[in-house]
Amino acid sequence: MSKTIKGILIAGLMGLSVSVSALTLKADAPQTYVVKKGDTLWGISERFTSDPWQWPEIWYQNDQIKNPHLIYPGDEIGLVEINGETRLTVTRRGDASRTYKMSPGTVKMQPTARVEPIESAIPAIPQDAIQGFLKHHRVVELEDLDKAPRVLAGADGRLIMGAGGKVYARGDFGDEVANAYGIYRKGQVYVDPETEEVLGLEATEIGVGSVAGKEGNIATLLLERTAQQVSIGDVLLPTDDRELISNYYPRAPKGKLTGEILAVDGGVSQVGQFDVVVLNRGERDGLEPGSVLLIMKKGEIVYDRIKDEQVRLPSERAGSLMVFLTYEKMSYALIMRANRPLRIGDEVVNPNN
To answer: Which structural domains are found in the chain, ordered by start?
Structure first.
């Protein structure tokens, strides 16, 4: 998986008016913490509570502070009493000239402007674990892939082509030909293991080509870059301008939800921390970027000698994940914690179930 950081997922810490009576802070939770470069919102939240999805319940948005929903390296955050409730907020921005006096029920600050690019705000989860995946994977409908233009031939009769080469593609390009196309290869078709419903088809980007000309239904493309050798039959799709800056924060989904890990990026069966996994639940099930789910390890099947029958033992909590990309019927998530070996087929549940 690519480690190149070409975007940033900004942690949007939107303050919510939610009761925190059920919130349990860690016994060793610090009174204050200075944010460091390389921190993530997930990691900071775990310093104060074992349940990062409770972040919206503990975070207090101080409206007197410029961009209170963004946290930067050098900022000091700490526990404060707000109207009798323990909350967490920015108590001091990184510049020493900006200080904030916090006391029960009041929030004061010295008026001043912060000049800081939004891109330097800390992300919700490790950027390098997902940036390559976001850029090179997409889910499409099977019929859309079947109707897309395909690589017809390579220059000089070549069967495989790389960056710097030229290819010809044939198909319906529509009324307007794009300046560039992503070149994709059909990947795995994801099917719900219970209902057998087709959830989506994963297409993997293997290169990008710029359009040098078009005659009839045949276009000439110059291969700008390739991750793999382009072959005859590969599919052209308009370049995906998906926004890589996403304002989200750890939170539990709304409503009861259970699902399953369908696959792990890389085609292996074992799953570990910071692996990208595919879930058989998506937007229609209430998932959105930032949704946190618990991973439940299926209990073993044992033999009950008294009843003379096979019995499955109860599932046990084995880790947690955060969803970072959703589609209607499925989604992608990053494994944040793995307390024991995980596998495809393990159950995921709403932590508030």
So the answer is: 1-104+115-129 (no CATH), 136-238 (2.40.10), 258-349 (2.40.10.410)
